[in-house]
Design brief:
The chain is of the alpha/beta class and about 325 residues long. The chain is built from ten helices and nine strands. Bound molecules: aspartic acid.
Length: about 325
């Protein structure tokens, strides 16, 4: 991969060329095993750094623009915290309705503006392919923080990191993905990231919310295995990971369909009586009822640890893209 051309003003002389330096981060396809392991190792170091010192000055003098066209709590604030804990600064545009976007400015012009002020742009957008489109116009790296129903690569990185930490490996296992597999971008990215790792996928969803053909075809093309189910009960006993997702209300054109499907799955302590004692429950969050709060007490509930891991993984990624890891 060649680094994005950047101006001599912004390019540090002392960068580390780690394979991600000055790269747009658009898809998990950019993370073959050695690069993924590298991110995991740096994330471990970031955890130690935060635990011991709280912050460092690795990215001092760097500025990140956070450009969010869709709501976010974790992704947005963990990117901001990651930048600030590494000594960098943030331009937060989390309410695009108060920016020139509401005057009708195009995405291309908005990113061309922000690249004059920032060293990289974290972009969340409601349109599939928006991050790739923005990257065409922008000379600074774009990090895809979710593009509609497409991908959410940094979520998948933190998900895979969580699996590795919790289970001790991120291969040779049975992973169940449950809920809205059609519109849920996190399961699209995570499935892609876990390909070629000897993982058996169990896709559990209502018929209307099945995993898209494109992703299922990629699983087959890579020689991995998946089965599809309506009932969690059929497979819960064999899972190493149960990855639960929210039914993505905002993606439905017919809200009647959403109403019919919104309570399709609710994980309770009773559901987990049939699960293995080492299985972990993950969720990208926010949850809106699909995991009952009583499950939080179960040691297998990994979703809050997963959320914390997002900080360390995003610190690692920012340091890598800015050539300081
Ligand atoms: N926070 C995740 C996302 O942005 C999951 C969700 O919204 O359900 O895709």
């Amino acid at each position: 991969m060649t680094a994005k051309p950047s101006t001599s003003r912004s390019r540090p002389a002392d960068h580390v060329d780690n394979g991600l330096y000055q790269q747009d981060i658009l898809s998990v396809r950019q993370f073959p095993p050695p690069i993924l392991d590298y991110i995991f190792n740096v994330a471990d170091e970031m955890r130690t750094l935060v635990e011991r010192f709280g912050s460092a000055d690795l990215l001092s003098g760097k500025i990140m623009a956070n450009l969010f066209y869709e709501p976010s709590t974790r992704t947005s604030s963990s990117f901001m915290a990651a930048m600030q804990r590494l000594g960098g600064q943030v331009i937060p545009i989390n309410s695009v309705q108060y920016s020139s976007v509401s005057k009708g400015e195009s995405l291309a012009d908005t990113v061309r503006t922000l690249e004059c002020y920032a060293d990289l742009i974290v972009l969340r957008h409601y349109e599939l392919g928006a991050a790739a489109e923005a990257a065409k116009w922008c000379h600074k790296p774009i990090i895809n923080a979710g593009d509609g129903v497409g991908e959410h690569p940094t979520q998948a990185l933190l998900d895979a990191y969580t699996i590795k930490r919790e289970i001790g490996r991120a291969d040779k296992m049975v992973v169940g993905m449950l809920g809205d597999l059609r519109f849920g971008r996190t399961v699209h990215s995570l499935t892609r990231l876990l390909l070629k790792r000897n993982i058996t996928f169990r896709f559990i969803s209502p018929a209307l919310l099945r995993m898209p053909d494109e992703i299922r075809d990629e699983v087959i093309a890579d020689g991995d295995t998946f089965t599809e189910h309506r009932d969690l009960e059929e497979v819960i006993g064999e899972l190493d990971v149960l990855y639960v997702t929210r039914i993505q209300k905002e993606r439905f054109t017919d809200l009647g369909d959403y109403e019919k499907l919104k309570d399709a799955y609710i994980i309770t302590p009773k559901t987990l009586t049939k699960a293995r004692s080492e299985m972990i429950v993950m969720h990208p969050l926010p949850r809106v009822g699909e995991i009952s709060v009583e499950v939080d007490e179960d040691p297998r509930a990994a979703y809050f640890r997963q959320m914390e891991n997002g900080l360390y993984v995003r610190m690692a990624l920012l340091a890598a893209v800015l050539g300081r890891a």
